[in-house]
Amino acid sequence: MVTITDKAKERIDQIMREENYDQNYFVRVAVESGGCSGLSYKLDFDNEEKKGDQFCEDKGVKICLDIKSYLYLAGTELDYSDGLTGKGFEFHNPNASRTCACGESFSV
């Protein structure tokens, strides 16, 4: 299961309002090959379920992961930072053995 912080929920809700996404949309979180540590995070909004998708919900936000990503992201917390040192979604992944300096990629 992936959880989200209150700040991440606020930002997700804001994006959904700005983009006029209805209740059929959910947050799709995935892992892709690439980045300086080998694997990188991907976050999108989607309204089409794919075979093998795994769903969870936290703070009223529906979160979708494909089966491969689920294995890498189980227990991950999604946060949002709007501070001076950077703005955007951040992944706090207990499965990552190493992350790059920018926090955008990891390895297990």
Automatic annotation (TrEMBL):
* One example GO MF annotation: 2 iron, 2 sulfur cluster binding
The GO biological-process annotations, alphabetized, read as: iron-sulfur cluster assembly
Domain (Core) spans 2-104
Matching entries from Gene3D superfamilies are given as: HesB-like domain
What NCBIfam families does the database record attribute to this sequence?
Answer: iron-sulfur cluster assembly accessory protein
Q: Which PANTHER family match?
A: IRON-SULFUR ASSEMBLY PROTEIN ISCA, CHLOROPLASTIC
This chain belongs to which protein, by name?
Iron-sulfur cluster assembly protein
Taxonomic lineage: Bacteria, Pseudomonadati, Bacteroidota, Sphingobacteriia, Sphingobacteriales
